[in-house]
Design a protein that fits this description.
112 residues, mainly alpha
Length: 112
């Protein structure tokens, strides 16, 4: 099934190229330079893909491992900050409650 569609697509491409040349939208030289450009882009793309898999993939893996470590430490730091803020909030609440009760006790001592 796939091979049949490839042949149909290639035949359609040949027909389209013939129509473009017959209507003189492109000359033969322009068409040849365009085909060479397409081939160079494909060649460079395949080369970039091969290099990225063999050269860049280990670097990216190391980078991802380092990023995972940094995210873990960031999560630990955020958790520590949240716990310290909660404990400071509880401490301030207890101290303010203690201050209010201490003021009530001093008022009762002064005004019997």
């Amino acid at each position: 099934m796939a091979m049949g569609s490839i042949f149909v697509a290639s035949e359609l491409l040949v027909v389209l190229i013939g129509m473009v040349i017959m209507t003189q939208l492109l000359s033969g030289d322009q068409l040849a330079s365009g085909i060479w450009r397409v081939l160079w882009v494909l060649l460079i793309g395949i080369l970039a893909l091969v290099l990225s898999k063999s050269v860049m993939l280990p670097i990216l893996k190391c980078g991802l491992l380092e990023l995972r470590r940094i995210v873990r430490w960031f999560a630990v730091a955020v958790l520590a900050c949240m716990l310290s803020l909660i404990s400071i909030h509880l401490l301030i609440a207890k101290l303010s409650k203690w201050r209010v009760t201490k003021q009530k006790q001093t008022k009762e001592d002064v005004w019997p």
